[in-house]
Amino acid sequence: MQMIKIPILFVIFLLSNLVGKIVAGKYRYRLEELKEMKNALNIFKTKIKFTYEPIPDIFEEISKTTNKNIGKIFISAKEQMNYKTASEAWKEAIFGSENNLNKDDKNTLNVLSKMLGEADLEGQVSQIDITLNFLENQIQEAEIEKNKNETLYRKLGTVMGLALVIILI
Questions:
Q1: I want to staple 59 with a disulfide (CB 3.0 to 4.6 A). Which of 19, 74, 75, 119 is the partner?
Q2: What is the rounded (10 degree) CA torsion for 13, 14, 17, 18?
Q3: What's the Cα-to-Cα distance from 166 to each of 122, 158, 159, 160, 163, rounded to whole Å?
Q4: What is the average pLDDT across 40-60?
Q5: Residue 66: φ, ψ to 5°
Q6: 4 exposed, middle or buried (CB, 10 Å; 0-12, 13-18, 19+)?
Q7: Which of 116, 32, 103 is nearest to 66 (CA)?
Q8: CA 122 to CA 125: how far, in whole Å?
Q9: Residues near 35 by Cβ (< 8 Å), separated by ≥ 6?
């Protein structure tokens, strides 16, 4: 009986640690995705300002150079631009995406949809700048949350694992 109990307790401890690390990782991934989105929007701003390429072509190029979750937003928006306006496509791509961004992050990115494809070049560039400013605030908030919660959840997973092992002994 003892030979079975020890490996089971060890597995319980490892699983609780893993759960703690997964929950803690969401904060790190959110911060990484926000920074990646900021870089992608800077690329978008530069391309729209200097190359005069169509928005779908720029989105396709950005989707290839960014990480998987952020790239999916851009490729989804590009595909939807075939039958929707750029503004509607961006909004749907943002809110339909599955990533680590929270509702406030998505609302911040949705600010861009107000003038995307509907204003002149300077209007779109200024809207991207506004979105980037809002995004910078979200990045600072995400860093604070990450610093506060990442260690907490990792340690909480370990403590809960130890508590379960002690209870089950």
A1: 74
A2: -150
A3: 64, 12, 10, 10, 5
A4: 88
A5: -105, 170
A6: exposed
A7: 32
A8: 5
A9: 139
In whole angstroms, what is the distance from residue 118 CA to residue 42 CA? 19
Average pLDDT, the chain: 87
Closest CA to 109 of 131, 124, 93, 79: 131
Q: Please compute the mean of the pLDDT values over residues 72-97 and round it to a whole number.
A: 87
Domain boundaries, the chain: 24-168
pTM comes to 0.84
* 102, 106, 109, 111 alpha-carbon torsion, rounded to 10°: -130
User: Taking the alpha carbons of 58, 99, 106, 96 in that order, is the dihedral positive or negative?
Assistant: positive
Asked if 81 contacts 108 with a C-beta cutoff of 8 angstroms, the reply is no
CB 61 within 8 A of CB 47: yes
